[in-house]
Amino acid sequence: MSFRIELHDWQSAGRLALEIRMEVFVAEQGVPAELEHDEWDERADHVLAFEGERAVGTARLLPDGRIGRMAVRRDWRGRGIGGGMLERLIERARARGLVSVFLHAQTHAAPFYRSHGFVECGEPFIEAGLPHIAMRRDLSPERNAR
Fold first, then answer.
1. CA 118: distance to chain centroid?
2. CA atoms of 50 and 40, how far apart (whole Å)
3. Within 10 A of 143 (CB to CB), how many other CB atoms are there?
4. Which domains are seen in the chain, by residue range?
């Protein structure tokens, strides 16, 4: 099956994005439910990935270039959905004039982000009870011309 990725604001994405986050972060990973919706959701750009009419993934881009809340439902992982959502958010960041994007990756996901041009910054740390590493991707034209 093929999938599509749509750009949304919180008003149109919120219900589906939160449903996916609760499934992935809270039910699977044990993250406290109260961490899955914050004041940044209303100010962020959101993507939703659909396979047919079913929402299977979500992520967000904050105004400062931070990408977060990347989640793909278990049965749809490994199909390129995460990479598609990430690249869509990077396109959006470029369109907004950002020169870099950054994120806090769960350490087991660092190779995925490296494969999309992100580099690690600093040492691992604990966030929401899970090990993470800060990562950054330069979006400047000079960097991408190489």
1. 13
2. 23
3. 12
4. 4-144 (3.40.630.30)
